[in-house]
UniProtKB/TrEMBL annotation:
It comes from Polystyrenella longa. Belongs to the methylenetetrahydrofolate reductase family. The keyword Thylakoid does not apply. This is Methylenetetrahydrofolate reductase. Transmembrane segments: none annotated. The keyword Amino-acid biosynthesis applies. One of its GO terms (cellular component) is cytosol. Pathway: Amino-acid biosynthesis; L-methionine biosynthesis via de novo pathway; One-carbon metabolism; tetrahydrofolate interconversion. Keywords: Amino-acid biosynthesis, FAD, Flavoprotein, Methionine biosynthesis, NAD, Oxidoreductase.
Length: 293
């Protein structure tokens, strides 16, 4: 199913899961187990990331095939401009189509480790809106997701600039916006309003990463500029030597956060599950997502 169709029925709020291709055989086995459990809840789609620097090009497609053929779920392949010329990007798109992948999350990607500024590859693309255009040109029927930033992309000079650039991606043909993770719903609600004010009318799906380990989440949020509210941070700090307690606080917080978002009528929730199922399972159970079809 294509992304636009997944979100077409406004009466149903869908959830989706994001995984990354594991590096080891053990990791692959453990991910397959986690996915088997999570897909019982009926996700709208399962997406697989495209490694930094384009390092998992083939693995991303292999996992999308597994998601489709082994788990019988709709797959979305993440795809970035990093390190590829236009011809190489088109070649990958042809491979994705050949493997039956109908949905692409079109991203610019981050600068390679050690570099602070993104540079287009020779003969490549500079921004995600150009990638959306390229996909529309070569795979006109593909479902296309793009990234949105409720707390602004770190490189953008202002929120207004960032939203103008988001609009470029939408005008180029994106079907859905999936947001960067955030822990303060006020950022999301403001972002949603700002999108509406710019006549962005495609679904805006909040991205949620349940906290299971405070140290790890601090590293991740520092890299992407997401704020951890002070109240939550201090509760987690108080149990910094107790991972089980951090897990419990993180899951309870995510349940409340998702509940508020769902009550406000979001089209769905995208879970960054970091290849584990336990936290997300508990959240989905609490939110009664098992009734989704
Ligand atoms: C849901 C989601 C999934 C992700 N998956 C992956 C993944 O699988 N692999 C990976 O490597 N990374 C992934 N990322 C991270 C992403 O690659 C980075 O956040 C990256 O820095 C920006 O990507 P983008 O697609 O938002 O870029 P863009 O939309 O191109 O924006 C990048 C910056 O340039 C500015 N900009 C955009 N267009 C223009 C323009 N035309 N003129 C001037 N300025 C412009 C924007 O305001 C922004 O500051 C993901 C992020 C999200 C939110």
């Amino acid at each position: 199913m294509r992304l636009a169709d997944i979100f077409r029925d406004h009466s149903q709020q869908r959830f989706s899961i994001e995984i990354f291709p594991p590096q080891t055989e053990k990791g692959e086995e453990s991910l397959l187990n986690a996915l088997t459990r999570l897909t019982e809840f009926g996700p709208g789609f399962v997406s697989c990331t495209y490694g930094a620097g384009g390092s998992t090009q083939q693995k991303t497609l292999e996992w999308c095939e597994k998601i489709q053929n082994v788990l019988q779920q709709t797959a979305t392949a993440h795809f970035t401009c990093v390190g590829s010329s236009r011809e190489e990007l088109v070649d990958w798109l042809n491979q994705a189509a050949g493997r039956g992948v109908q949905n692409i999350m079109a991203l610019r990607g981050d600068p390679p480790r050690g570099e602070t500024e993104f540079k287009a590859a020779e003969g490549g693309l500079r921004y995600a809106n150009e990638l959306v255009e390229l996909i529309r040109e070569h795979s006109p029927n593909a479902g296309i997701g793009v990234a949105g930033y409720p707390e602004k992309h770190l490189e953008a000079p202002s929120m207004a600039d960032d939203l103008d650039n988001l609009k470029r991606k939408v005008d180029a043909g994106a079907d859905v916006i999936v947001t960067q993770m955030f822990y303060n719903n006020e950022h999301f609600f403001r972002f949603q309003e700002a999108c509406q004010a710019r006549q962005i009318s495609i679904p805006v799906v909040p991205g949620i990463m349940p906290i299971t380990n405070f140290q790890r989440i601090q590293r991740i949020t520092a890299m992407c500029g997401s704020e951890i509210p002070e109240g939550l941070a201090s509760r987690l700090e108080a149990v910094q030597d107790d991972e089980a307690a951090q897990f419990e606080i993180g899951v309870e917080f995510a349940i409340q956060q998702c509940r508020e978002l769902l009550e406000a009528g979001v089209p769905g929730i995208h879970f960054y599950v970091l290849n584990k199922s336990q936290a997300c399972e508990q959240i989905l159970e609490e939110l009664n997502f098992q009734t989704a079809t």
